[in-house]
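Students often ask why we bother encoding 3D structure as a string. The short answer is that it lets us treat folding as translation between two languages. Here is a chain of 728 residues written in the first language.
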Amino acid sequence: MNKLPKLSIAAAMATVVGAGSAVAQENESGKTADALEEVVVTARQRSESLQDVPDAITVFNSTKLETASVTRLEDYVNLSPNIILREGFRAGSTSLTVRGITGAQNGWAPVTYIVDGVKASSQDALNGASLTDIERIEILRGPQGGLYGAGAIAGAINVITKAPTEDPEYAVKLGLGKGNGKTVQAVASGPLGSGESLLYRLNLNYLDTDGLIDDADGDDVDFEEETVVRLRLISKATDDLTLDYRIAYTDIEAGAVTQDRIPGPEYVNDFSSSVARLERGILGSETREFFETALKVDYEFEGAVLSSVTAYSDLEQEVYGTISWANPPFDDTFLGPVFGSGAEAGQSIDNFQNTEDNIETFSQDIRLTSTGDGDFRWVVGAEYLHREYTNLLSLGRIVGPVPGTVSQFVNQQDDREDNLWGVYGQFNWDITDRIELTLAARWDENTYSTIEVDPATGQPTGGIIDPSNGLHVDELEVTDSEFQPKVQVSFDVSEDLTVFGSAGRGFRTGFFNTSSLAAPETSDNYEVGFKSTLADGRMTLNGSIFYTDYSQQQTSDGTDEPPFRRTVNIPESELLGAEVEFVGKLTDQWLLEVGLSYLDSEIEDSGGLSTPAAPDKTANVALQYNHPLDDGLELVARADYRYQGEMYLSLSVPATPEDPFVTTYDITPKEFINFRVGVEAQDWSLALYGKNITNERTAYTTFNIGRSPHYRSFNKPEDYGVEFTLRF
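And here it is in the second language, the structure alphabet:
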């Protein structure tokens, strides 16, 4: 398995070198070579060329998102170096790992995720509805606290949706996929009324699929029905004042609690039918409703623009499913045997879990940004976020005889609240024509609290333990704060080569997971890199090397006591890594993209263990072919290869300094291949796609509660589909 990625990467890089020589010869002979299109990003709150921004950034424009068949967060994550995504027992249970930094259950993500200037309110909000009508996605790696705040300890993901158009624009996309999948997407855009002072863009998306995974009885376990409505309005109220308003509603009903069971950790990579058991007495389901609205106001005056972004969101989700992970009768569950329809009085028909989350968030960001391209550019601002987070956990048995009665042994509601504010600034100074100095700083403070209440009465239960004294209290409140500086210098060696170096601090606030308190994290990151343009603009080659001193990494593991989960901190870790990204036109019809990463992470005093869920290598190779046909048609074909190196998923952190670190669930290297081939015209396109066409399987999350069997969630099997788009 290890030889194939090495050969693939070597072949790709050899092709790069050979293609560069061929292009050089063509230029010397006087032939004109088409350069790559300039990639513009807004990573520093202003429009700049990607090659001019001295940070490690991977960008997906609307064309690449289409040709790579990107429809979910996981799709573009798997096209990026040094970042992976893992899904848990439901869609909202999503964990990202970026440069060895990952997340913990119910905590904040390791990156700040922003859509049109509005930050996601939680990890649960990252992996929501299908991605549609997106203009650009920017993935920034490395701490970005100066502009993006607490949570950007490992980077930021900046999503920009398509803006309303001055001319009327309409499009419809229809799709059919494996698992009886059906999609309908519609877009309408243009002016409202006779003038161009008010523009709109309306986006509708509907998805209905039986899913790709069946249990042993043939029941669909990953079914999904999704409806999304988004409206964006832009008003040019005056020459100086612009109002940008958006509102969105998402409704999802989907399969959940889709884990299978395996005999032990050594079988985590085995998906053969003789080992993996996906059986259900209770078919899991999840409902999600997500409402969000935001208003951005830009007022431009001489030399600067004043921007205000006000946002509100409400996410409600509920999951119901098994905690037997078996089809009764079955005697090996952690709550004892289940008897199904044969249960007698007092016996368990089956065991269930029921979780409900309500996350309501208000945020306000106001900033002042300089305009123009002078030698001194700056942005200063302040931000406030208020979040109310209610989590209800219910575990129990359905007691026989049939139809049974509900007996709960855990019925716990946690009401949490966050009040986070920050002030920030970034200054870019062109010291000379070739040297740019960047200074950024931010102060963040979060006061957060938790209270455990009886769901029936709403009264405090006194079930929270104060870690400072071990006493039971009704409510616990903590305040975290951190100063996050960053200094960066870039030097233009030539018109086509820039080198840079930076030092910066990242910060992620602590949180409560039920009554378990996770301490805040910090990372001190040091990085050097380069950005280059080759072959008269037909190729770009960018790279960086980084070292991160990582303190108090937040992680989760299971326990034998209700509610069977806890959050702990890993005191100290070191992360050393490198990344390289290449994009090149080999010819006018062939485009090659290569992304490589290497990570060497180590937990201090652990005997050389790496950080959890952090692959040592990733590699991406994409080859795209565009060929003109008759009658204005064009053939577009693309193949994407992804290699993900070895890692482990579960880490038991010592309860005392004398106890050892213990890892389980070692994941072997994985390889994934996607493709898309289609014919495009000016007003329509037809394409066939395939995802994970080699049917590579990998575990995402794993656990057991002090006994066998063990349980794992996992990725989707192979998928195929066809899409037709009509634009008019």
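Translate back mentally: The longest helix spans residues 3-28. Keep this in mind for the problem set.
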